[in-house]
Amino acid sequence: MQITLNGKSRSLDPIPTVAALLDSLNLDASRVAVEHNRVVLLMGDFAATPLRDGDVLEIVQFVGGG
Amino acid sequence: MQIDINERPTEIAAGTTLAQLRNAFKPEADLCIRNGFPENEDIVLSPGDRVVFIRRGEIPAAEELEALMAARHTPGVHERIKSATVGIAGCGGLGSAIAVALARTGVGHLILADFDVVEPSNLNRQQYFVDQIGLPKALALRDNLARINPYVQVTVHNERLTPENIPERFGTVDVMVEAFDGADQKAMLAQVFLSKVPGKPLVMGSGMAGFGPSNTIVTRRAAANLYLIGDGETAARPGEGLMAPRVGIAAHHQANAVLRLLLGEDPA
Q1: 3-state SS class at B4
Q2: Do the chains contact at A63 and B95, CB–CB below 8 Å?
Q3: Which of A35, A60, A66 sits opposite B94 (nearest CB)?
Q4: Residue A66 to residue B191, Cβ atoms within 8 A
Q5: A60, B226: Cβ pair inside 8 Å?
Q6: Quick check: B88 and B112 in contact, CB under 8 A?
Q7: Which chain B residues are Cβ-neighbours of A59 within 8 angstroms?
Q8: B109-160, pLDDT tens digit by residue?
Q9: Which tens digit of pLDDT belongs to each residue from B52-83?
Q10: Which among A30, A26, A41 is positioned nearest to A63, based on CA atoms?
Q11: B64: part of which helix (H) or strand (E)?
Q12: What is the 3-state secondary structure (H, E, C) of chain A?
């Protein structure tokens, strides 16, 4: 499948959900913000949000300190 | 012609010079600020000029103080930010410095939230004082801001922010600032604010620990309404502590991003 991730086109083996995508990228779901097709998701929605060909995602990973 | 003298519209004769005006209005003044900038030359004034006369060391009357404090702003800036509301989630190293910068700039209303109290280990980077150890940060910061600029309205929430209370506490802001310490708290605020308070910009900090180069801390647009400040990678961890210089750099990137958003400019 083809998605746009942080502005770059990526070819991936089919991945069913946003949660599975985060998993495949080794990202900690509790430390990211995900904008999926212009909609910002709550963490509780990651597993229920299907990933489809052509989806556009912005994933921001946060580090601690402030 | 009309000009502003100490923020009051005043009629003066065409051709009046700055020195003539000072002698008539406040002869003891030793500082003349014209259109936001100190003016040492005796120049002929133009219609619409904003002139402020200050006597060094004099504590002005309350009704004049706000105008004198704003005298170094670029004309037009004060009016626009005076009516703005900015939310700040977290009053630690980032939040306390951002609040001080925005109060000095004259943002009209700040909404502060933090559940924690001032501890000795905070004083290496946070805008508190030794005699405030043990006080709730949100209340201590409100006190400090009142000493800096009493014309800023400050609303405080001395409580932990949650997905349940964030939309209510910050639903009215023009710009929201994330200033938490924990990465999971940063993520929670981003998710909740951007989805529950749609259309409002969020300015976040991520990656400002240690004493790495200053210029790796940048402001960028990370999503539609999300501006992210920091080096993106330097987490606070054993051997890489949080210190005033880099935390301050990130905090002031955030404060300037807020100012630019309020003035209709792109922060990134």
Answers
A1: strand
A2: no
A3: A66
A4: no
A5: yes
A6: yes
A7: none
A8: 999 999 999 999 999 999 999 999 999 999 999 999 999 999 999 999 999 9
A9: 999 988 888 777 788 888 888 887 888 899 99
A10: A30
A11: helix B62-69
A12: CEEEECCEEEECCCCCEHHHHHHHCCCCHHHEEEEECCEECCHHHCCCCECCCCCEEEEEECCCCC
B246-256 pLDDT per residue, tens: 999 999 999 99
CA torsion sign for B109, B257, B175, A29 is negative
Q: Which residues contact B103 (CB under 8 A, 6 or more apart)?
A: B110, B145, B148, B149, B152, B154
CB pairs under 8 A between A and B: 93
First to last CA, chain B: 40
- Chain B interface, best mutation among A22, A39, A49, A63, by max B CB count within 10 A: A63
Q: Is the pLDDT of residue B7 over 90?
A: no
Question: Is B222's CB within 8 Å of A63's CB?
Answer: no
A36's tokens: 């999926």
Residue of chain A with shortest Cα separation from B186: A62
